[in-house]
């Protein structure tokens, strides 16, 4: 049987010659987590070094070094706008093989918790730096308005109005009250405020802060077994506590127990992250909660109307982003 001749590639089918040096340079560039984070951020929009430092929570020297490496490898371009140099991920203009490597890297890091934290900080950064639509007076103050308001009117300006959502006869409980900052904010607007904590030192600090404040009671107890009666509070709060507990579900179940029918159970805690150094430094037992996990704690406690959302982080905050969740005690 005759064997057909091996077809020879035509002019348009000539395979590209191997480029080991280029491939190794691309692989080396993408083998660094900070560079992957930069590329993901710069896919969304152009950003300058200052903004990237804020979002990544890294010093300028580190960010600048990684930007140079990415630019030298052809992953980024930059342009001047006034005194600022803006960087952009040119993924749709890359060499085809280089683009394939980036797509693979992007796919394999899609579930990385750090990228979700970066996305939250990017959203907060956008909000702060959105173009002002106000008049000239406010346009001139936009960059310093928050600090100006706080200096003139005090730090409680933004949070105190929220307390007016409580009825005047409200009874509230703060699970893990710590030094009593939330209790102090709520006490003027509620009939009873209960602070619950396992630490005698924290309760002593709360007592000193709230000395003489009417309607405040402090209780040293296990947050899974408090002295409060069934269905005794209109709202139960838990702020940055669950990440310290070995069994957070037990505390959430206790919050649900003491809430009245129709009462609110509200939780603020860390969004899921992978900063083990942060967890160890803060003495926490977990690396925060994904949205489904935090909502699941409320659902498992028998609450309804559960919703959870990511809290846009303050631009100057150095810790992980936070997540809010709330549920309602079903009516009897």
Automatic annotation (TrEMBL):
HTH arsR-type domain residues: 15-109
Highest taxon in the source lineage: Bacteria
> Per UniProt, what is one Pfam family of this protein?
HTH_5
Q: Which GO terms describe its molecular function?
A: DNA-binding transcription factor activity; S-adenosylmethionine-dependent methyltransferase activity
Q: Which Gene3D superfamilies match?
A: Vaccinia Virus protein VP39 (3.40.50.150), Winged helix-like DNA-binding domain superfamily/Winged helix DNA-binding domain (1.10.10.10)
Q: Which InterPro entries has this protein been placed in?
A: ArsR-like_HTH (IPR011991), HTH_ArsR_DNA-bd_dom (IPR001845), Methyltransf_11 (IPR013216), Methyltransf_Superfamily (IPR050508), SAM-dependent_MTases_sf (IPR029063), WH-like_DNA-bd_sf (IPR036388), WH_DNA-bd_sf (IPR036390)
Give the protein name, as stated in the record: Putative ArsR family transcriptional regulator
Q: What is the lineage of its organism?
A: Bacteria, Pseudomonadati, Planctomycetota, Phycisphaerae, Phycisphaerales
